[in-house]
Amino acid sequence: MESTLDADFFLDPDDESFRAILVGELGRNQEFHLTTGHYGDFVDLRLADDFPDGWRERLVPMPGFDDVFALDPVDMCVTKIAATANARLSLRLGRGGVDRGMKDINTFVLLLKHQRIDRAELTQRLRQMDYTPALTVECGSVFAQILALVDAAA
Q: Which residues of the chain form beta strands (DSSP E)?
């Protein structure tokens, strides 16, 4: 499994100018990253428009931090499956973009294999998403690939 040493952060309420300051101080290739090996991606809260319904109610508190929360693991998987599917679809349709590779897929395989996330719950949340037909099909393809790898590892 490939590991990363970054975290994606949303500010709520969003503040674009403060977000830019944080990226300048704690973002990729900034002094903090170069010194510690860790960095933060401070992203626009509008990205959350594509999160599963009810994601805010399922946020997980981060131990040791006041008012810092992480996405529920299943919600994170849904958003990353959609991001992988969207990237693949864009590349196939010649719209550009980048290949997200296997990093997220391999992470989901491990999470499912070691029962850190529930397969039925992930399936249900994916089915509840209101994507375009093309993205829905591509998400199904990505999810099928994940499940095949889980089954092969069993």
A: 6-10, 39-43, 60-61, 69-70
